[in-house]
Amino acid sequence: MSIFADNLKRLQEVQAISGIKDEEMKVLLEPVQNKYVELEIEGEKYPAWRILYNRALGPGKGGIRFHPEVSEDEVKSLAFWMTLKNSLADIPYGGAKGGVKFNPKGLSEQKLEAISRAYAHAFAPYLGQDKDIPAPDVYTNGKIMSWMLDEFEQVVGHHEPGMITGKPVELGGIKMRGDATAQGGYIVIKEMVSKFLAGKKNLSFAVQGFGNAGSFIAEKLAADGFVMVAASDSSGGVYQADGLDVSKLAQFKQAAGSLSSYEEGTKISNAELLETEVDILILAALENQITELNADKIKAKYIVELANGPVDFAADKILASKGTLIVPDILANSGGVITSYFEWAQNRTGQILDEEYLRVLLDKKMKANWTAVYEKYLAAENKITLRQAAYWLAINRILIAEKYRGRIS
Ligand code: NAD
């Protein structure tokens, strides 16, 4: 099943409702740069990609994923989503993504460092603060960004902290990056609740993917009176009808590395978690978690995509026909890249901005993005989904930039 083929279907659909012409849409059908190498370390080969999808609005921007299921199809799709996400967020970036296909779990730190450095070395000609700026994604983190920055700077022979984001503070990172994706998602959920669930108290939620984005958003929602009845990671899930203790679960996951041996609540599978009776289902793991195989069984009326692409095209249709509202990934999880933009801007100017000021800015930007999407959705009198509204806005901005550049007329 090609994730990218699904993206093309989504583009076709938006084209039909927006009237975008074929010759305009063609600039969004393929990436502008697709680089592949096999990293070789101690005789072992690691397939690695860096794909720059579009650069009309600025340099490429998007994370690097280390995962056994990474493929060209996946990286291309993630780069496509980054393109739309950055455009929708109105930050001066195109979209890109990278990945290495291997299982980082249980690997020695030396091996992980060797793979990270080999990646930065191999792709150095294509990376840079004005070319393409990576960041962490699934199973990559600040330490990996540090090795990549160091390797890149050795290749180019000068300091360039703005070539990568999600760095430790000591290397030019920004403290608020850690929970920024969750913070952005939290702001969007509050907006969604105010429009669709106003006045409802003790709303319940479940989180698939209790990792960085998933655990932080759970903590923020719980602190605000929402009740988490289920959470899962790749080892499985836990359920408790009257609510799980989110802080305790987060501390447990931090210490044990997985939720599998958590002793409170009832053990459930990931499939069961998705089908839990809750108000809000938060998807924070990987792509294609809700498909035509399980869309019918989803009971939550509100789905928030913190992960990229967790609901596929066919499932979108089934859920829309049931009246399920989906807050799409390119809106819900954009807090991370917006904060990466703050980090990059600081690195480029040498200025260090007050964190409180940046938090206010993130809040304002997320609300503005939500409002733009929601108003587009309302203007179409509920005939389009929030995803279609978000795609429409994002595509429009890219096409205007492409026109100014003269790539399309
Ligand atoms: P992470 O590695 O910290 O967490 C991912 C979690 O998902 C882990 O706990 C893992 O065990 C779990 N998981 C993996 N497969 C699963 C499965 N089949 N079922 C249930 N859980 C599963 O990664 P993250 O940074 O939190 O990213 C999660 C998602 O959010 C990804 O899709 C990523 O692209 C997206 N995202 C993250 C950020 C960010 O800033 N962290 C920004 C934008 C989008």
Structural commentary:
With about 400 residues, this protein is of the alpha/beta class. It has 2 domains: about 30-170, Rossmann fold (3-Layer(aba) Sandwich), CATH 3.40.50; about 175-409, 3-Layer(aba) Sandwich (Rossmann fold), CATH 3.40.50.720. It is built from 14 helices and 13 strands. The protein has helices at about 5-20, 20-25, 70-90, 110-125, 140-155, 180-195, 210-225, 245-255, 270-275, 315-320, 330, 335-350, 355-380, 385-405; strands at about 35-40, 45-55, 60, 65, 95-100, 130-135, 205-210, 225-235, 235-240, 265-270, 280-285, 300-305, 325. A 7-stranded mixed sheet has the order 10-9-8-7-11-12-13, sandwiched between helices. Strands 1-2-5-4 form a 4-stranded mixed sheet. α4 (about 110-125) packs across α5 (about 140-155) and α12 (about 335-350) packs across α13 (about 355-380). The two termini are about 35 Å apart. The model has no long low-confidence stretch (mean pLDDT about 95).
Summarize, please.
With 409 residues, the protein is an alpha/beta fold.
Fold blueprint:
Blueprint: H1 3-18, H2 22-25, E1 33-41, E2 44-54, E3 60-61, E4 64-67, H3 72-88, E5 95-101, H4 109-123, E6 132-133, H5 142-156, H6 180-196, E7 204-208, H7 212-223, E8 227-233, E9 236-239, H8 246-256, E10 266-268, H9 270-274, E11 280-283, E12 302-305, H10 313-322, E13 325-327, H11 329-332, H12 335-349, H13 355-379, H14 386-405
Parallel strand pairs: 3-6, 4-5, 7-8, 7-11, 11-12, 12-13
Antiparallel strand pairs: 1-2, 2-5, 8-9, 9-10
The structure holds nicotinamide-adenine-dinucleotide.
